[in-house]
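Protein fold
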Amino acid sequence: MSMEDPFFVVKGEVQKAVNTAQGLFQRWTELLQDPSSATREEIDWTTNELRNNLRSIEWDLEDLDETINILSMLSVPFGANGLMNTFLPRCLKHVHWAFPFIID
């Protein structure tokens, strides 16, 4: 059994989830700007999906960070350091700063 690099395993999934969150956020802002264009159920569904998606991204990034820290302590080689060092902080920054009012 081979051990897959946690950075590359999670990176693609997180990027897809961020794209989904951006689409949900766009729809959510449209619904809030013109509430008469949607039902209350659609607004609630979009809000909940966006919140859940962002929490999931945050948890995935926290898990990845913990795994990377453990592997670092064990001196296990992983990831392309340049990519990893920019990807993780960039995603966390995007999730926390772009959507802070939804996560809390």
Observations:
- The mean pLDDT is 77.
- The domain at 6-103 is CATH 1.20.58.90 (Methane Monooxygenase Hydroxylase; Chain G, domain 1).
